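Example S7 (C-alpha cells).
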C-alpha cells in the first residue's frame, strides 16, 4: 500500500535529532501537559478531564452529547440517479454501522470517541487494514498519547506513545481524527483547558459546599467567656460543642450556653454569599461551553411546556448536527479512498429525534397521504412498522388537481365539468352537516344580492 512507502520515506526524512527535538517539544507543549493535569491559577484546584467530570453539569453535558451520537445509527450510502441507496455490499458499511473493531459495539466506540473529543479536544482512531487494503478495524487511541505534527504543508502525521513504552509514527491515511474546534487544522482546542476558570469555579463551589456541610452547616464562630479559661476549660467547651452539634445530622439543634458564654459569628452565611446562585450560574455557563440547552442537563428554571419542545428541536439542529457533520465528513476524508469519495458518503439517521408528538405526526401523515407524496407503506416505515404489502404502495392524487397548462386547452364547458368533479371530491371528504352549512350560507348570500 502507498502508506507503507510514505512511511519509509518519512523515516529517512526525520533524523534522530529532529525526532528527539519533537519529543522534547511534545513534553513541554500545553496540550501534552494535560496528561499530568493543570491548576486553575484563581482557585488553585487541579482542573483536568478527569476532575472536570466530577462537576455534574460537565458530566451531564458530555454524557448527553456522547450518548446521543452513540445511539444514532450511521449508514454508508451510494449516490444514485434517484438520490441514494444503502451501500451494504461495501466493506466500510459493516465497520461504521455494526462492528468498528473486535472489542467494541458501535455504541461503545462512538461514545468513547465523543468523550475523548469533548474532554480533550481530539478523538483518534487508528485504521487497521486487511491484506486487501480494506478497512478492517478502527482502534481508538487515547488523545493524551497522540501528538499530531506537520510533515510538510498540508500533510500531517501522528506520533503515538503506547503504554508499553516507546513511540511510533501513524500516517494521516491510517488515522481517523475528529476535532472539537480548530484554528490551525492540526488539532482541536481543548475545551477543559480553555475554560479552566469556569470549571475550576464549579469545582471550588462544590468543594466549599462539601466543607460547609462537613463542618455542621454553620459558619465559623468564636466563643466569648466573661472570665478566664484554662487550656482544660477551652478543650472541654470545644469537645462538648462538637459532640452535640458537628455534622449534618446534628445541625440546627438548640444550643444551651451557661455561665455567660456567648457566640460571635465570624463569616457570612452561604445565602448572603449567593452560594446557590453561583452554582446555578455555573450550570448555565457550562451549558454554553458545550452548546447544549440548559434544561437538558437539569436546569429547568427557564423551561416551560410551551418552549421545551422547541428547545429540544434546537438541540438537534444547533448542538447535535455540527457533531454529526464532523463525523460524516471525517469518515469520508479518512476512511474512503479518492475514487470512493465521489460515489459514497456516510450519513446519520436522525429521524427519531425529529419526530413530534403523536397528534402532530398523524396530522402531517394525513396531509402527505392526501396530497400524494407518501404511501401507507412509506408512513409505516417512518413509524418503524411493517408494511401491508403491494396495496400499501399506492399513491393518491386529489381529483380537483390538474395541470395548469392542460386547463388552458379546455373549453368553458370542460372547465365547468372539471370544477364540478373537484367539488364532488371535496364534498366526499366533508361531513353532511358541514356541506349543508355551505349551501345554506351560499343561499343567504344569493338572497341578499
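Recovered sequence:
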Amino acid at each position: 500500500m502507498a502508506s507503507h512507502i510514505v512511511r519509509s520515506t518519512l523515516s529517512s526524512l526525520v533524523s534522530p535529532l529532529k525526532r528527539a527535538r519533537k519529543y522534547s517539544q511534545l513534553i513541554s507543549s500545553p496540550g501534552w501537559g494535560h496528561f499530568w493535569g493543570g491548576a486553575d491559577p484563581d482557585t488553585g484546584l487541579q482542573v483536568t478531564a478527569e476532575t472536570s467530570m466530577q462537576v455534574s453539569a460537565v458530566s451531564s453535558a458530555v454524557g448527553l452529547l456522547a450518548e446521543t451520537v452513540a445511539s444514532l445509527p450511521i449508514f454508508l450510502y451510494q449516490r444514485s440517479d434517484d438520490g441514494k441507496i444503502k451501500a451494504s455490499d461495501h466493506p466500510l458499511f459493516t465497520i461504521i454501522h455494526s462492528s468498528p473493531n473486535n472489542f467494541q459495539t458501535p455504541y461503545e466506540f462512538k461514545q468513547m470517541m465523543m468523550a475523548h473529543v469533548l474532554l480533550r479536544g481530539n478523538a483518534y482512531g487508528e485504521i487497521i487494514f486487511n491484506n486487501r487494503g480494506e478497512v478492517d478495524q478502527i482502534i481508538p487511541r487515547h488523545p493524551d498519547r497522540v501528538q499530531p505534527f506537520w510533515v510538510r504543508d498540508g500533510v500531517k502525521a501522528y506520533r503515538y506513545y503506547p503504554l508499553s513504552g516507546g513511540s511510533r509514527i501513524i500516517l494521516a491515511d491510517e488515522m481517523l481524527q475528529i476535532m472539537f474546534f480548530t484554528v490551525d487544522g492540526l488539532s482541536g482546542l481543548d475545551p477543559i483547558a480553555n475554560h479552566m476558570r469556569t470549571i475550576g469555579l464549579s469545582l471550588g463551589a462544590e468543594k466549599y459546599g462539601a466543607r460547609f456541610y462537613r463542618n455542621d452547616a454553620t459558619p465559623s464562630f468564636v466563643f466569648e467567656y466573661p472570665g478566664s479559661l484554662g487550656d482544660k476549660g477551652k478543650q472541654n467547651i470545644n469537645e462538648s460543642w462538637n459532640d452535640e452539634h458537628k455534622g449534618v445530622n446534628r445541625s440546627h439543634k438548640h444550643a444551651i450556653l451557661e455561665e455567660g458564654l456567648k457566640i460571635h459569628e465570624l463569616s457570612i452565611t452561604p445565602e448572603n454569599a449567593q452560594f446557590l446562585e453561583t452554582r446555578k450560574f455555573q450550570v448555565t455557563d457550562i451549558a454554553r461551553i458545550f452548546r447544549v440547552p440548559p434544561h437538558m442537563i437539569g436546569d429547568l428554571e427557564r423551561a416551560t411546556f410551551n418552549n421545551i419542545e422547541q428547545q429540544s428541536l434546537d438541540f438537534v439542529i444547533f448542538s447535535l448536527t455540527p457533531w454529526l457533520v464532523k463525523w460524516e465528513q471525517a469518515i469520508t476524508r479518512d476512511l474512503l479512498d479518492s475514487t470512493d469519495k465521489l460515489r459514497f458518503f456516510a450519513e446519520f439517521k436522525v429521524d427519531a429525534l425529529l419526530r413530534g408528538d403523536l397528534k402532530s405526526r398523524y396530522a402531517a401523515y394525513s396531509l402527505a397521504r392526501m396530497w400524494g407524496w407518501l404511501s401507507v407503506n412509506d408512513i409505516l416505515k417512518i413509524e418503524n412498522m411493517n408494511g401491508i404489502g403491494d396495496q400499501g404502495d399506492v399513491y393518491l392524487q386529489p381529483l380537483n388537481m390538474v395541470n395548469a397548462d392542460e386547463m388552458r386547452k379546455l373549453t368553458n364547458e370542460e372547465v365547468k365539468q372539471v370544477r364540478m368533479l373537484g367539488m364532488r371530491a371535496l364534498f366526499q371528504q366533508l361531513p353532511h352537516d358541514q356541506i349543508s352549512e355551505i349551501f345554506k350560507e351560499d343561499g343567504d348570500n344569493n338572497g341578499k344580492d
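Notes on this example. The longest strand covers residues 122-129.
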